[in-house]
Amino acid sequence: MPAAGVTIGSQRAAGPKARRNRIGDDGPARLLPNAANTGGSAPRTAGTENVKECPEMTAQTDPAHPDKGTSGQPVRAAEEEIAPAARSADNPGVLFVCVRNGGKSQMAAGLMRHELAAAGAAEAVRVDSAGTAPGSALNALSAEVLSEMGVDITAERPSQLTAERMRALGHVVVLGSEAQVEPPEGVTVERWETDEPSLRGVEGRERMELIRDDIHARVKDLAARLLGGGGLSAAR
Length: 236
What we know:
- It is built from six helices and nine strands.
- It is an alpha/beta fold.
- It holds the Pfam family LMWPc.
């Protein structure tokens, strides 16, 4: 069964406008610049600014209507089938999304590729990540805690979420509650309410390690659903 805190379902272009991502401070941390914004190959270290990637942790259900999310959208159980468009594809895909595309969504994509490769299925699922308001740099601390597991995301750069990319992959996983996604017809959205240790006063490397472990558990569950007997339709 999927990890706790997962909502899934098709989203319509309704509900409140996206809130701006909150920006916090983990203390000194290196950021990996976006080569597209620096006019050439970017070095792998820079500055001391550190953006907390997608720190949102508000609940996604309305207490008065537990069958609906905060935007009024129906919330389906995570064990339900995911996406007709992706279900019919010979090579299913998943697009991980957060606001800045510098931390959580990049970590999820890297961990998914790692899990697929470990299962001998590196080419079985198309994996990508994007941001609703992408930043200019990868969160270096995110890359560091993944490198401890043998996962290298240092070559990745934040990129813009588009309708075309959502259609190409068929299924979108939104990490946290701040990124607002309006999927095209036939594309479904699964939202993960990921852990945010800073709400408990945990910061720095320990914070990022806890975020990594939470995302990893969710990624392993999704990988099992993808590979467990029929692609994205194997969500039971």
